[in-house]
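USER:
I wish I could look at a protein chain and see how it folds. I am handing you a single protein, as its sequence and its fold in token form. As I understand it, each token names a local backbone shape. I hope you can help me see how the letters and the tokens relate. The protein I mean follows directly.
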Amino acid sequence: MAAICVFCASSRTLDQRWLDLAAETGREIARRGHTLVSGGGCVGMMGAVVEGARSAGGRTVGVIPQSLVDLEVADLASDELLVTASMADRKTLMIEKSDAFLTLPGGLGTLDELFEVWTTATLALHAKPMVLVDTDAFYRPLLDWLTLLTDRNFLKPAGMDLLLLADTVPDALTTLESHLP
């Protein structure tokens, strides 16, 4: 099946509901026979998504910069743990190793990863599907702002259309699967 990269928060101070959403995501990816590609961390939602995948028998690939390995936050239980020299190298390798991207709620790092993948897609550097999971309208203010960018011609409508939306993890995965080659 596909290698699905999940972008999500690695904060240790999140409400349990976000950790549960990440764990559900990992389990659902594994149940559908896909490989999980993650940022290679073992904390926050990132840790929950890999544990969820493993609990359902899934394969996990982590991609992490050496600086985070040094902080002892690496997911050493990954089936494959790839260590990069920098955060930029990490994003590049995550894009190369993945067939599709799913973005859960997160902060600056999550948005950085999403925008990197989305920008490279708008430049036709890849044609891999991307789904934003907008649970409880988490991303609604951002989506409103992005619509404003489109309305003001800073973002072409075709670029906006590359980002697919879903309210739930099962819907997000079904959408991704329907857009895989």
Q: What stands out?
A: Helices lie at 16-31, 44-55, 66-70, 87-97, 108-122, 140-151, 157-161, 169-178. The longest strand covers residues 60-65. The chain has a mean pLDDT of 97. The chain has eight helices and seven strands.
